[in-house]
Amino acid sequence: MRSSQHGWGNAIHSTRADDRRRRDRCGNVYGARRRLARARGDGADMTAQRVLILEDNLIIAMEAEEILRLIGVKEVEIASNLEQAVNAIHTDRYDFAMLDVNLGESMSFGFARLLAERGIAFGFVSGYPDTLDFPPDLRHVPLLNKPFDEAAMWAFVDRLISVSDPSSSPP
By CB count within 10 A, which of 70, 124, 143, 158 is most buried? Predict the structure, then answer.
């Protein structure tokens, strides 16, 4: 008996695949893309092509990447620390960035201000329930609470795209 059949070998992939099947049977996260597209009225995928994720937890970053791809984002770059994130924005262009607030020994607020200076839309991803403890100049930034699912990610990304494209109509 192979261990991967029971989710022990390649735990990340087999657990996710199993979890996706359960969500499909229950009608939860799986298929939310079509429901949300119908709710928006356009039936289109997200227009964002490149996204930067600043997240120090690889499992959370990979889950975010998977969901972003499910909702139509073409390219996702993961930075696990501030140095990698700064290097990424100096070498590539991004439609928006998702920033974990607490990166262990540092916070992402300084990097958020750098993104704002460069005109790159961004939002925070955090276990904190709101932005009241954030610096006053960053309390207006969209917040995606952990843990998140496809529907929450879709709403978060839609809000970021609306913020970065003032000509787009609100959802």
Answer: 124
